[in-house]
Amino acid sequence: MPSQSTAPAHPPEPVARQTSFCRLCASSCGVLLDVEAGRIMRVLGDAHHPISGGYTCAKGRRGSDLVLGPDRLTTSMRRSAGDSHEPVPVAQATADIADRLRTIVDRHGPDAVALFMGTQQNFAALTPPMARAWFRGTGSHKLFSTMTIDQSAKWVVAERMGTYLGGRQRFEDADVWLLAGTNPIVSGNGGDGDGAVVHNPSVALRAARKRGLRLIVVDPRRTETAAMADMHLAPRPGTDAVLFAGLLQVILTENRHDGDFCRRYTADLAALIDAVAGVTPTVVQRICGVDANQVRDAARIFAGGSRGMATSGTGLCMGPHSNLAEHLVAALNVVCGRYLREGERADDRAVLTRRVPARAEVAPATRAYERGFRSRIGGVRAIRGELPSGILADEILEPGSDRVRALIVSGGNPAAALPDRGKALRALRSLELLVCVDPRMSDTARLAHYVIAPTTMYERADHTAIMEPFFPRPFAQYTPAVVTPPPGVIEDWRFFLDLASASGQSVKFAGRILDPGAPPTAEQLLAMMTERGRLPFADLAAAPHGQLAGLSGAIVGAATEEGAAHRLSLLPADVRGELNAALTESAVTKQFPLRLTVRRIREAINSTGTRVPGLVPGGVNPASLHPDDLAALGIADGQAVTVRSASGQLRATAQADSTLARGTVSITHCFGSVDPRDDVGVNVNALTGTGHGVQTINAMPTMTAIPVAVEPGVPATTEMT
Ligand SMILES: Nc1nc2c(c(=O)[nH]1)N[C@H]1C(S)=C(S)[C@@H](COP(=O)(O)OP(=O)(O)OC[C@H]3O[C@@H](n4cnc5c(=O)[nH]c(N)nc54)[C@H](O)[C@@H]3O)O[C@H]1N2
Ligand SMILES: Nc1nc2c(c(=O)[nH]1)N[C@H]1C(S)=C(S)[C@@H](COP(=O)(O)OP(=O)(O)OC[C@H]3O[C@@H](n4cnc5c(=O)[nH]c(N)nc54)[C@H](O)[C@@H]3O)O[C@H]1N2
Ligand code: SF4
Ligand SMILES: [Mo]
């Protein structure tokens, strides 16, 4: 803003109102931006936006502070002596990085180079394909992303069960829906549903309930979403697999399943019936702490609905037995036949991207991960071309000829996000080369040799191609850059293209080899990405509030001859073994009698927002407990406490929260700082580890439902992260 005391040399420019969309989370809400003298003065919801209808959240309305705030990097940085950084022109930085990568590859081979793809990379259409294109050119196998410390249990399910290719039932005409370990009113997530609860979620859920949808929520906390539900089951954290086995038991023994769907599309229903036979509502009550009658009612309500799915989020996919829990959620949908049949209207949401025809058949389980690149760390295999991020720190630290020595981080903050924070920080600090592409000095950036300063969301042209699966209706939007970026920054995609050419690699994008001598513009690349879609790019660019694409008329086709022979595997032997383990293990111990769960807040998306002054209430993330638990522990609301787990400890401020089930502690992730002088809360990954409880296949650590103890006061030892 122009200073009050100095008279402006020119009359102030008028405020111009521009349309765009927010790119901080998958919701992609339509916004109006008041721009004055090249700065965004205000962010408002776009009431004419066909999907978000004027809705924005607290962090979206602070979007300009988030991207243009005081800690915004306006030039790339290079680490100088000690831990300080000095500005470096991006062309110089790119040339240096290419040199250093070449030296590392010459000495140790391409697998010494790794890429970590973070959450914010996904909200820029051009970044993921270009970062991947650079990475492909390196010849390395060391590709990591946040998916494998998030919901890769969903990948594991598809690998072990197979996938029905007709598509999933939709929220819009569902009469029942079950949300487990997800709080869409805050996260805009809702599991891999159909996007209906992603946009303006409270309004969407209220409207659905009004038309008769029955909502069941499974969460140890009475969340904002649970408060709107017909039924709220609050299991002990980490016991969801048993709860879902129990729901299946009721449905199968009471013959409430869809026998026709099961006969046509599953291979082993009898094995599932047998495996869950002993998991009666009484057993569920004992293990999960959910009343047996509630289990029975929930099963009957879910199976009694004619349409609607069970979907899940991080609360399930991060807990112990996460692969099993997610498998049983999928099994519940299968036995209730909650998929689209031949002749029904097919999923239509591919507008800018190519539509994959839906067919009433099964892609069988292939367990392709068994043939993936094998890491020397525990023999863990790549799944869907990625190594699990749970082994990234060990990939860097453990000796071996293909040890990771150079790491490029794109739109992520692994220093805050990885499990076992102590080990993760040690690993990041020990790299020969750490490059972080980030508009802020994040924790990861502070440890990096080079920080590449990219444009931020309102400084770049973009479209919604990669967000399409999250829209409830076929929709697409394009936005031009609304404000001019500072001269020292570079578009994320352009950094990866330049790095590839400085390394002598060619880059393939949307099916063609790009000429590094004459790089395309962002608009040209965005247009290329949409060539196989059904909406011409020119039409898209002419629709400032985005474009509803209408229905394509596509229907679910008949099975092919080959496809008709395939079946879903409901209960492979390894899944059965996991169920037996989940039924016999008891995680509660005297030493760690409580369970730490993780939850999201409206005001921050992962670490983004945690440092914006005045955005997060209280500025830090407290450790919340039920008031009766606090009283039993002799802890007052607001008092300093120590939270301990088998993996570490942290100091936090206790907060009374009566929405939590007894025995549960809740802390939001991705807060805290590597700099002890910053007062920005605590990092929950001081309490997570990569030892006990790590899942087979995707090496997913336990990142929620962690056994902990809470004590008043600060710890005697000073070892804190
Ligand atoms: N214990 C525990 N740990 C967790 C979780 C949990 O629930 N519990 N959650 C896990 C999950 S689900 C996830 S997804 C991860 C989050 O892990 P990450 O995705 O690694 O973390 P973010 O904080 O989202 O990092 C995004 C970074 O991108 C930067 N950024 C913003 N805009 C741009 C841009 O336009 N370009 C570029 N290049 N960068 C940009 C931000 O400044 C920020 O530093 O954490 C995981 N860790
Ligand atoms: N505002 C905001 N939105 C976000 C993000 C953010 O940080 N802030 N992050 C984004 C990202 S990266 C992701 S992956 C998605 C995640 O989206 P969600 O999965 O919906 O994440 P949460 O809102 O944390 O909801 C998880 C819920 O799981 C519950 N839970 C914890 N442990 C257990 C358990 O053992 N069992 C059960 N049943 N429930 C449990 C928690 O109480 C919490 O309510 O959100 C995205 N959207
Ligand atoms: S929900 Fe909030 S952060 Fe997400 S797109 Fe909408 S305004 Fe932006
Ligand atoms: Mo995530």
Your description of this structure?
The protein is of the alpha/beta class and 721 residues long. The protein folds into three domains: 91-150 and 368-461 and 486-517, 3-Layer(aba) Sandwich (Rossmann fold); 152-353 and 568-573, Dimethylsulfoxide Reductase, domain 2 (3-Layer(aba) Sandwich), CATH 3.40.228.10; 586-712, Barwin-like endoglucanases. It contains 23 helices and 28 strands. A seven-stranded mixed sheet has the order 5-4-16-15-14-6-7. The chain has a six-stranded mixed beta barrel with strand order 23-27-24-26-25-28. A four-stranded parallel sheet has the order 11-10-9-12. β4 (77-79) and β5 form a beta hairpin. α4 runs parallel beside α19 and α11 packs across α12. The radius of gyration is 25 Å and the shape is globular. The protein starts with 15 loop residues before the first strand and ends in a 9-residue tail after the last strand. The structure holds ligand MGD (2 copies), iron/sulfur cluster and molybdenum atom. One ligand MGD is lined by residues 25, 119, 150, 180-184, 186-189, 218-221, 223, 235, 237-238, 240, 313-316, 319, 597-600, 602, 604-606, 704-705.
